[in-house]
Structures are given as C-alpha cells and as structure tokens.
UniProtKB/TrEMBL annotation:
GO molecular function: FAD binding; monooxygenase activity
Co-factor(s): FAD
Species annotation: Rhodopseudomonas palustris
Name recorded for this polypeptide: Monooxygenase
Record's keyword terms, sorted: FAD, Flavoprotein, Monooxygenase, Oxidoreductase
InterPro entries in alphabetical order: FAD-bd, FAD-dep_Monooxygenase_BioMet, FAD/NAD-bd_sf
Source species, domain of life: Bacteria
Record-annotated FAD-binding domain positions: 7-353
Record SUPFAM superfamilies: FAD-linked reductases, C-terminal domain (SSF54373), FAD/NAD(P)-binding domain (SSF51905)
C-alpha cells in the first residue's frame, strides 16, 4: 500500500499498540517499531477505568482481557496508622453506570492481549528490536530511521514512552522532571496474602509521606502492591531491584496488616517517578506524540495508561476523518494532528493536576491527615465517586 495510507508508530507499549489497532480499524496500514527484542514482563498492575476499557472493548479485546483482568468490587481508603477503613467506594456501580468494565490487570497481560490482537491484524506490521533513531518531516510526509533502515509514511506517532526518542528529535527542549517520589512495585501469590487471599477490591492505604495501593491481578491469582515514598534515587527505567529491608523499614510504623502485606512481597522493583511538564507541545507537521511521550504523569489518578488509550482513539478518528490523498494531503495531516493535540490537551492537563493533588492529599501527616479522613467520611462514597465522573464517563 502507498505511503499515503501508512502510519508508523514508534513504541509497542500500551499506547502504541492501541493506536495501531485503532488506526488499522480505520483502514490505515500501520508499522509499529519497538526497541526491545521481546515484549518482556515489565511494570506491574494497572487500573483500567471505563473511559479506557470502553475503547479496548470496541477494538475487540473484551474476551482476551476478561481472561486475565479482575473486576474489583470496591476501592477502600484505609488510614495507615490505625488500619481502619476511611471510606469504601463501590467501584462496581461506576462500571454499571458507564456501561463499560472497571478492570485491574497486570501491564504485561494487557500488553500481551494487545500484541495478540495486533498479530492477528493483516494491516499491522509489528517489528521488534527496531529502535527509532530519527524522524525527518518533509513536504510530502516523513522519513523514519530505525535499525539502520529508512521508511516513508504519511505520519509518525511517537508512543515511545516517557524517555521518547521521537520527542527528543522534534522537541529536544522538553524533558521529564523527577518528582522526588519513588514507586516500589511488587507482587505476591494470592494464597500468600495475610488474610488468605480473599481480596476482591482495591485498597488505598494513606499514611504520612507515603501511600500503598493493593489489588488482585492475573485473574486473581496474584496481588499487586505499589508503595510510594519520597527519596532522591532517580535512575531511569521500570525494573531496578528494590532491597526489601529498606521498604520494610519505611513502613515499620504502619498498621500490622499493611506491614504484613509489605513483608509478604517476593520481588520488589523500584521506579523513580518522573513527570512531563504540563502544556508542552505534542505535534509538529506529520509527527505527533501520545501517551507518556507527551504527558507522562504521576500515577496517583491511575490514568496514565487510560490517557494513552484515549489519545489513540482520538488520533485515529481524526486521521480517518481527513479527506485528502495526493496534493495537500501532508498539510491536512499536519492540521489534523494539531486538532488532535488541541482536543486532548485540556483533559490531560486536568488529569495531571488531579494526580498531583491526590499525591499531596494521600501523603498528609498528623492533624491534616485526620481532617482529610473526616472530610472523606463526611462526603461519603457516592459523592467521592461522583467527583470522578468526568474521567470515567468520557467517550471518544
Ligand atoms: C507505579 C505506577 C502505577 C501506575 N498505575 C497506573 C494505573 O493504575 N492506571 C493507568 O492507567 N496507568 C498507570 N500507570 C501509568 C502507565 O503505566 C503509563 O502511563 C503507561 O504505561 C504509558 O504507556 P505508553 O504506551 O505511553 O508508554 P510505555 O508503556 O512506556 O511504552 C513505550 C514503548 O516504547 C518503546 N520504546 C522506547 N524507545 C523507543 C524507540 N526509540 N523506538 C521504538 N520503541 C521505543 C519501549 O520499549 C516501550 O515498549 C502507572 C505508572 C506507575 C509508574
């Protein structure tokens, strides 16, 4: 097929694979170039709220995801010192109202499901071990250099994560900033849970200068833990080993149940939390960014992957709605990518702000934490959940 219908996607992460499926569903031929030679098991659990799950369902992923995701019944906020529940929000009601599932899933399971769907699509060519080195826009499209070869395309989508090489070529001045926070991630078999593995929901433990998120993944067979603490260790990457004694010591003053969970984890990895500054550029001519490449954010709204999935749907719909082939097509693509950025940026900025606010609220110490707990109880679960409606009820 002509380069005029070919889109190159850099990166086969959650955003890149979703973009490939969404673009192929609109009739484009898609080449996905992924740096790593294997889609390895990196990362840990992800929450997928209805705004994102709806898109995945429409792309035909329901049965693949139902096989590995868990449908949590509730999100329970817990005071880390007392171990007492602050509020229990029935997340199942959110899914019913939104008409799409609320899932918790291992990132590797989600990526594998997307990759299997991609492999079954004749219009998508996924090439592993093929890092994008350069993008060179011109009057008719773009040339992408990867693995010593050059490819022509109508547009290139930089879905290559927070350390994006595509962004580095077009916007070298925009870079992620270290937040001063570190996420420790680990899993344990459900039967090793201190309560015997009956967890069906999401636990959000709130403590001074730290929080802990716990939920089942992998069809309920494993439990995912994310413990967020402050610190100065700021190496890049998703998979640096964490020393258990260090994290156990950080949570030594927490309620016994939280300590037992931390102590039961088999394999800790550390992830320094970087975030992109708000308001950076996302597009230039035939080049556009999506997902963490454009708006890597703190994970405290549980929406980083969700926003990447939304980006993919909006981008594909915009490119499909264009008319032109031939003369003027490149200008129209550039205008379409500009509209994509303008459509997405206000919503993503709002989510980035919410994530930062949540980080502050989750980590309040002393009297401020008591006031937070009182306010959450007074608002109650329904009003707390209703405040998230603008995220969950969104449709492309
Ligand atoms: C602790 C923590 C908890 C989180 N929890 C949630 C949650 O509950 N819900 C949620 O929605 N999000 C969550 N997130 C965020 C989520 O993981 C990310 O936002 C999401 O994975 C970003 O997807 P992406 O496709 O943009 O980038 P990535 O998934 O990072 O994928 C980028 C891909 O590009 C490839 N690549 C890199 N460079 C190149 C190159 N030069 N050429 C080709 N390929 C390249 C990489 O190998 C990778 O495969 C969490 C994040 C953290 C840190």
């Amino acid at each position: 097929m002509a380069a005029s219908r070919t889109i190159i996607v850099a990166g086969a992460g959650i955003g890149g694979l979703t973009a490939a499926l969404a673009l192929a569903a609109k009739g484009f031929r898609v080449t996905v170039l992924e740096r790593t030679g294997r889609l390895d098991e990196v990362g840990a659990g992800l929450q997928l709220s209805p705004n994102a799950s709806r898109i995945l369902v429409e792309l035909g992923l329901r049965s693949r995801l139902e096989a590995c995701a868990v449908v949590p019944d509730a999100v329970t906020a817990i005071n880390a010192r007392s171990g007492r529940s602050i509020v229990r929000m029935r997340i199942a009601d959110v899914a019913t109202r939104a008409g799409a599932p609320y899932w918790v899933v291992h990132r590797a399971d989600l990526q594998a499901a997307l990759a299997a769907q991609v492999a079954a699509h004749p219009a998508i060519d996924l090439r592993l071990g093929c890092a994008v080195d350069d993008v060179a826009p011109d009057a008719d499209g773009v040339t992408v250099s990867a693995g010593g070869a050059q490819e022509r395309a109508l547009a290139v989508i930089g879905a290559d994560g927070i350390w994006s090489a595509v962004r580095g070529r077009v916007f070298p001045q925009i870079a992620p900033r270290f937040s001063g926070l570190i996420a420790w991630r680990g899993t344990l078999p459900a039967e090793a849970m201190p309560d015997g593995g009956m967890l069906r929901g999401v636990q959000l433990w709130l403590g001074p200068d730290a929080h802990l998120v716990v939920y089942p993944i992998s069809g309920g067979r494993r439990i995912n833990l994310v413990a967020v603490v402050d610190g100065s260790w700021n190496q890049r990457g998703w998979s640096a080993r964490g020393e258990p004694t260090e994290i156990i010591a950080r949570f030594a003053h927490w309620a016994g149940a939280a300590q037992a969970l931390i102590g039961a984890v088999e394999n800790w990895t550390r992830w320094a939390l970087f975030a992109m500054p708000d308001g950076g550029a996302w597009n230039q001519g035939p080049v556009a960014l999506l997902g963490d490449a454009s708006h890597g954010m703190l994970p405290f709204a549980a929406q980083g992957a969700g926003m990447a999935i939304e980006d993919a749907a909006v981008l594909a719909a915009g490119l499909a709605a264009r008319h032109g082939e031939g003369r003027g097509a490149a200008a129209e693509v550039a205008a379409t990518l500009q509209r994509y950025a303008a459509l997405r940026q206000p919503r993503v900025r709002q989510v980035q702000r919410l994530a930062r606010q949540n980080g502050t609220i989750y980590h309040l110490p002393g009297a401020a934490a008591l006031a937070r707990d009182v306010a959450m109880r007074a608002l109650g679960p329904n009003r707390l959940l209703a405040r998230q409606g603008w995220i969950y009820d969104w449709r492309p």
